[in-house]
Amino acid sequence: MSNLKNTQLSLESKKRLLKEMLFGRRFEERCYEAYVERKIGGFLHLYSGEEACAYGILDAARPGNDYVITSYRDHIHAIKSGTDPKRLMAELYGKVTGCCKGLGGSMHIFDVDKHFMGGYALVGGPFPLAAGIAKGIQMKKGEQICICFLGDAANNQGTFHESLNMAKLWNLPVLYVCENNLYGIGTRIDRSTAVVDQYKRVSGYNIPSRQVDGQDIEKVYAAAVEAIDYVRSGNGPYFLELMTYRYRGHSMSDSNAYRSKSEERIWGKRDPIITLRDRLIEAGEFSQEEYQTMDAEILDEIESEVIKFAEESPEPPKEMLAKYVLAENDPYVTGGRR
Amino acid sequence: MSETNLVEAVNKALAWELDHDKDVVLLGEDIGLNGGVFRATDGLQSKFGEQRVIDTPLAETLIVGMAVGLASQGIRAVVEIQFMGFIYSTIDNMISHATRMRNRTRGRLTCPMVLRAPYGGGIHAPEHHSESTEAIFAHMPGIRVVIPSSPLRAYGLLLASIRDPDPVVFLEPKRIYRLQKESIEEAGVALPLDVCFTLREGDDITLVSWGAMVHETLQAAEKLAEQNISAEVIDVATIKPLDMKTILASVEKTGRCVIVHEAARTCGVGSEIAAQLAEFGLTFLLAPVQRVSGYDTIMPLYRLENYYMPSVEQILSAANAALEYA
Lengths: 338, 326
Known about the structure:
The complex is a heterodimer.
Chain A: H1 11-36, H2 51-59, E1 67-70, H3 75-81, H4 85-92, E2 116-119, H5 126-139, E3 146-151, H6 158-169, E4 174-180, E5 183-184, E6 187-188, H7 189-192, H8 198-201, E7 209-213, H9 217-235, E8 238-243, H10 261-268, H11 272-282, H12 288-312
Parallel strand pairs in A: 1-2, 1-3, 3-4, 4-8, 7-8
Antiparallel strand pairs in A: 5-6
Chain B: E1 2-4, H1 6-20, E2 24-28, H2 44-48, E3 53-55, H3 60-71, E4 76-80, H4 88-96, H5 101-104, E5 114-119, H6 134-138, E6 144-146, H7 151-163, E7 168-173, E8 182-184, E9 197-200, E10 205-209, H8 213-226, E11 231-235, E12 238-240, H9 244-254, E13 257-260, H10 269-281, E14 290-292, H11 302-308, H12 312-324
Parallel strand pairs in B: 2-3, 2-4, 4-5, 5-7, 6-7, 10-11, 10-13, 13-14
Antiparallel strand pairs in B: 1-8, 6-12, 9-11
Helix pairs in contact in B: 1-7, 3-4, 8-12, 9-10
């Protein structure tokens, strides 16, 4: 591994990431409101509390060029990959201007242009797909890597083990990012998983791994720089376990009754946004007033641009129901040569 | 031109496509060095290399999931599953991902993969190694299910399946892998998907079948001809989507229909054909549609296999029932 890579975030980057993370938080919390108002349908899984994971990892990657695949808690990974938040919100609203034309919704965000290869509703489902994407990159001799973000509970699926074996056997360019928020819906990790430390589970496949504080974006970024450098240099897969916490329930229909208030308070004090903000203020590089201005600007942007766009966009026409199933009038279907 | 049996035709089609499309790869267990359990990929790894004809771990779920991921990079994976009975763990990835890529990306990405598997009974092997569960796949939106019944159709339909931009389940009737030889011109000419093949024209009754059972059906038609009954024989070939136009046109002419398949009876593809004949052909049906099928049982071990497999006699009996109906 190269030692030349700078694993430290610059002051400018810290301020930018503070703003990006705060945008992500406000976006998600606004989704919460819109869901309660029944503007957003389907299911909704919010990322609040876990922001340092997606922003820290992808800031060290090449968003929009590297391939990203993840679970149903997918809004922020798409935004950081380059998906326009307006089109994302329109998607959640089920509007035709959405990034999936209003037919995918919260759990199935896809943005091929940005190499965001989907959120997936099935836990553990993306593991084999990530291996395939990485194999494809390897075959095409691409410089991209595939970054597969999944939760801790997904690692109890067989696909996790089948994929790790394959990824190491062929040294595929894939970075696994386990966002360990300690719960699979309402089942705490020590009630579901024999080996609680997820980074230890991959040692059986000879894949290097690390456990990192997922609430500290500087630590996440530093680990990501090294891991991505390792993978992009052709050394094969790498596994990062980020210890994190989601503030909301698993989904909007989850009452969150399985966690104690004291546990929530402990994690609340380790908020990734507040942590970074206070660090900047203590260093004399930022002020509370600047933060409040930043927050007000973000709230205004979300309301006057993102929500407005979603609200004013039209619904998909019913003819779209029958589209995108099989190719229509395709010459190959009738035996024509390419 | 060379005299070729069905499994050799599969091999030739794979070789042609590997040779003419650099984005085609084969994935499967024992397909490379070992040449495949039925020799369908024999010699292909030595010709095209380990990066094109890829031996995988024994992990069917993963193999198909990877094929979906590979499609996103423009690579057309042709996956071999060793037996139909080993295909069930792939269903998760087929129904959850492969069939939906076009829909999920609103047409930006498709999944041009082929899932090949030998299927069907008649080789004296029990359950997983002999069953015909094509209807499971035929029920999925976003997929094609193609079944050849001769070397020529295996060659042409497999080429078309690999070139098709959507996922195709290509089921090879292994009982007839080496039954007959046909002259195949290795020119890479595909046959059309989504259409039936009328193998024998007739006016008195329509016999509809696919896969290995086409051969029993043709024998039945021959016996009927000895009784001066002219039977039309249709090989459905693509069972999803169904070419009902051809079947309906034939039944409009004959007024009588027998559907022959090896798969279990309930919710078999024969049920769908019969339903559509009832929906769209009731006015020209002269007799109830007859089905000759396997039973709703687990595929038995070899001593009972002959009881399970539909026979020429059963087809004749069903045809006579249709012909004698007032």
